[in-house]
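U., I forgot to send this yesterday:
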Amino acid sequence: MNFLPENIATYGTQIDGLAALISWLGLTSFVLAEAALVYAAFRYRRSEKRKRAAYIKGESWGQAKWIFIPLILVVLLDIFIDIKTTAVWKQVKIDLPTADMNVRIVGQQFNWQFTHPGKDGKLGTEDDVKTTNELHVPVDTNVVFELGAKDVLHSFFVPALRLTQDAVPGRFIHGWFNATKPGKYEIACGQICGAGHTGMRGMLIVHNKEEFQKWVENPVTGGSTDPMEILKGNGCTSCHSVDGTRVVGPSYKGIWGRSETVITDGAERQVVVDEAYIKKSIREPKADTVKGYPAGVMPAGTLSDADIDVLIKYFKTLK
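Result:
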């Protein structure tokens, strides 16, 4: 099925096989049913010999078989598909393999937060590596993940892995994958989760074993000098535009030096957007809310000081 995205998952072939099986069975059944209808329309159309349709009660087997035989065939095909589906479902969702690596994934409006094990190889310790919108894994490795959401329902969708799993607030759902080819692959949100849903994108980065070990030793989670790359990589453009368009949060266009009315602890006050204000807005986004915009939506940023300096220089140019 070449019209599908590239498959890099160990279980992707089985899932693609299911899609092909259901598609071909459905298409074949549709063509046969339509052919029977077209045949009947012409074979039994009104003519000089047949001016009135017969009233058929369907009480004889000769008449009822046109209902029961297709019904039995549909049920048998459904059972056959269920058997095939159950086998794949068991492999993908039930029988999780022994983890070579564990990661934590949290969806929030409107980005993905990933926690990787650090040098000690264990998740939940001090040397964990946290990234925004970048999931780093080694090739040919059983990666077991725990997936949750901070605010609303999201869906972790990686087409190349044939993986879709809802992220539900208040609980962690476990799953796994094994990527067979190094490269960069898109991560998206498969559930409409708010105004910035379409910008909730990330990247799965599959390293070869040596490159991944180097990344763990010295994780590079930022460091770009391209401001748009920083903004997109951290999910900022999901809620803020650079051309003046109003979205979830204020636009960056003309923001530098602008006087804003913000709400702090329920009280309004005036502030001037300068270096200190931008840093505080990124580090403590819930401290002040610009009047007219929703409060408590923006998550605390994980940007480095170098990244913030790049953004401040960029904001100064957006007149």
